[in-house]
Amino acid sequence: MSDIMLLAVFPYLAVMTALGVGIYRYLNDRFSYSSLSSQFLEARALFWGSVSWHYAILLILSAHILALLFPSKWAALVGEPVRRYVLEISGLGLAIVAVGALIILIARRLTNRRVFMLTSKMDWLLLLVLLLQVLLGFYLALVYRWGSVWYLHTAVPWIASLFWLKPQIEFVSHLPLLVKLHFAGAFLLVFLFPFSRLVHFVTVPLGYLWRPYQLVIWNRHPLNRKEMLR
Ligand code: HEM
């Protein structure tokens, strides 16, 4: 029963909440779609924490997503022992960077009085859930070896079954509790998404990659322009 709640009901609840509240917040409070930078209060620790966190977690999540989207190509990739070793060790290394970066970001908010004052309860909750999620990921990569392989026969068909609205938790319900908590933790983050600064995720300025470059042109009469330059 608890498995059904955790692995079949909660994922849908989380996605529906993220979509519903996310769209509502976007339509009613568009300017809150931001991470509310605190860089002007403290920049040094923010640089080291934030840059390393984003590089590490984006690489880790890219591996999670690539294996999910292209399971047969992923299986071929990890089928060769050297490549499997390299991937697993890189994953562990990146997990250590992600945990270290989060600790820097948390310590920064705790030790800098001005940043502390601007940290909401939701910020603390989000940081805590992220820390637990990466710690659990690190733990399972370390203890339940070759996750890059068993992920393909457990998490991938489970997530696919959720996507097709035919949840089949038997792919994952036999796994150890901490593994299931890592899986459900992903949906807890989805659930928190519309209530937290995680919303900045959808504001990544990807449009800059293909928009035409900016042209700055004078919009004044040439004579007035000379006046201005004088
Ligand atoms: C339903 C979604 C998810 C599933 C099924 C999943 C599954 C896994 C598995 C099987 C591993 C072990 C990989 C290995 O042994 O090499 C792992 C590792 C890890 N996961 Fe997840 N994960 C999910 C979501 C997330 C999310 C949302 C985060 C972070 C925000 C995360 C962070 C990590 C980290 C830091 C590691 C350790 C590094 C690595 O080995 O890749 N995971 N995850």
Quick structural overview:
With 230 residues, this protein is mostly helical. The protein is built from 10 helices and no strands.
Q: Any chance you could write out the topology, listing elements then pairs?
A:
Blueprint: H1 2-28, H2 44-69, H3 71-78, H4 81-111, H5 113-117, H6 121-143, H7 147-153, H8 155-163, H9 177-192, H10 222-229
Helix pairs in contact: 1-9, 2-3, 2-4, 4-6, 6-9
Low-confidence stretches: none
Helix content: 55-70%
Query: Do you know the CATH architecture?
Result: Up-down Bundle
Q: State the assembly state of the protein chains.
A: single chain
Please provide the ordered H/E string of secondary-structure elements.
Answer: HHHHHHHHHH
User: What distance separates the N and C termini?
Assistant: 78 Å
CATH homologous superfamily placement: Transmembrane di-heme cytochromes, Chain C
Name some characteristics of this structure:
10 helices, 230 residues, Fumarate Reductase Cytochrome B subunit, mainly alpha
Characterization of the model:
The chain is built from 10 helices and no strands. The termini are far apart. The longest helix has 31 residues, at 81-111. The mean pLDDT is 92. The chain has one domain (2-229): Fumarate Reductase Cytochrome B subunit (Up-down Bundle). α1 (2-28) packs parallel to α9 and α6 (121-143) packs antiparallel against α9 (177-192). The protein has helices spanning 2-28, 44-69, 71-78, 81-111, 113-117, 121-143, 147-153, 155-163, 177-192, 222-229. By secondary structure, the protein is mainly alpha-helical. The structure holds protoporphyrin IX containing FE. Protoporphyrin IX containing FE binds at residues 57, 60, 63-64, 88, 91-92, 94-95, 98, 130, 133-134, 137-138, 140-141, 147-148, 151, 155, 182-183, 186, 189. Residues 57, 60, 63-64, 88, 91-92, 94-95, 98, 130, 133-134, 137-138, 140-141, 147-148, 151, 155, 182-183, 186, 189 line the site of protoporphyrin IX containing FE.
